[in-house]
């Protein structure tokens, strides 16, 4: 079988039985496709939430990583997998694993890379569904994959319909990554999953005109954008929701932003705005916060 992945034609000679899965997003996609029992080695990021996939993925050999720099070609090849599913490969590429007889599928949301600003994706949710269906074909679990996609689509449609029936007020919103009280916030453009999540709950991304996934605007650009609401993304292992809110509202240089002045801050764990199935959980969490 040959499938297209990130512009590459990937040939898989037989249904894989020994997967090496890197990152929770890839893990949730494999789980949704019905392949969690094929995962031989799982390398999640430290403290990464996995939702319903946590227990089945926990049965595999665990090789947690701190960041993408910990991804090792030698370790992967040494584990003798028959396929790799990952969010990226850092200092080496799929061709090097293919030379060792190991095909690689990369999460479509990271086809352009996983660094700031890098993305080839225009419709992150559709790419998420497509990834699950592709994995289902490769693993021979097509029906499970189709059922999973149907369920995810239904949940997304339910949120969108509720937003249409009861649209939120003050829709102009900025999604910002908050690393700490003194760090310059990063922002998300139209190629990000959080952009699509905001659209789905009836919000308007003030940086929708930025054709990137993630970028770092200066303070003047943030003030000029004048968001009435902020979605503050954060890593739960590093801080708390209250600390994130204070990191935004406590900054004097951001006081002129309407959302800061009115303390209209939504918070979302960064991992719930990625390119795995937790993006749908994150969408529901945003909708619940808006409805509260």
TrEMBL record:
The residue ranges of the Fe/B12 periplasmic-binding domain are: 18-292
Name of protein: ABC transporter substrate-binding protein
Concerning InterPro entries, the annotation shows: ABC_Transporter_SBP, ABC_transptr_periplasmic_BD
Regarding protein family, the annotation reads: Belongs to the bacterial solute-binding protein 8 family.
**UniProt-listed GO biological process terms:** cellular response to iron ion
Segments forming a coiled coil: none
Q: Cross-referenced Pfam families, in alphabetical order?
A: Peripla_BP_2
């Amino acid at each position: 079988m040959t499938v297209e992945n990130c512009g590459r034609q990937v040939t898989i000679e037989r249904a894989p039985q020994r997967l090496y899965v890197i990152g929770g997003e890839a893990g949730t996609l494999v789980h949704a496709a019905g392949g969690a029992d094929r995962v031989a080695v799982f390398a999640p990021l430290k403290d990464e939430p996995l939702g319903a996939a946590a227990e089945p993925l926990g049965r595999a050999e665990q090789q947690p990583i701190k960041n993408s720099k910990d991804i090792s070609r030698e370790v992967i090849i040494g584990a003798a997998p028959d396929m790799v599913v990952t969010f990226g490969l850092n200092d080496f590429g799929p061709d090097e694993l293919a030379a060792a007889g190991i095909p690689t599928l990369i999460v479509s949301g990271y086809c352009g890379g996983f660094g700031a600003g890098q993305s080839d994706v225009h419709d992150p949710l559709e790419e998420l569904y497509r990834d699950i269906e592709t994995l289902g074909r490769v693993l021979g679990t097509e029906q499970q994959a189709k059922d999973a996609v149907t369920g995810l689509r239904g949940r997304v449609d339910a949120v969108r319909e509720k937003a249409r029936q009861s649209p939120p007020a003050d829709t102009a919103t900025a999604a910002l990554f908050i690393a700490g009280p003194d760090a310059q916030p990063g922002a998300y453009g139209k190629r990000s999953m959080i952009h699509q999540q905001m659209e789905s709950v009836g919000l308007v991304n003030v940086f929708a005109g930025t054709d990137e996934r993630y970028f770092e605007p200066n303070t003047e650009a943030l003030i000029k954008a004048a968001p009435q609401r902020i979605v503050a993304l954060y890593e739960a292992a590093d801080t708390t929701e209250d600390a994130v809110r204070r990191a935004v509202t406590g900054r004097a240089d951001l006081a002129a932003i309407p959302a800061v002045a009115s303390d209209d801050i939504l918070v979302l764990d960064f991992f719930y705005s990625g390119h795995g199935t937790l993006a749908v959980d994150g969408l529901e969490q945003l909708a619940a916060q808006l409805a509260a």
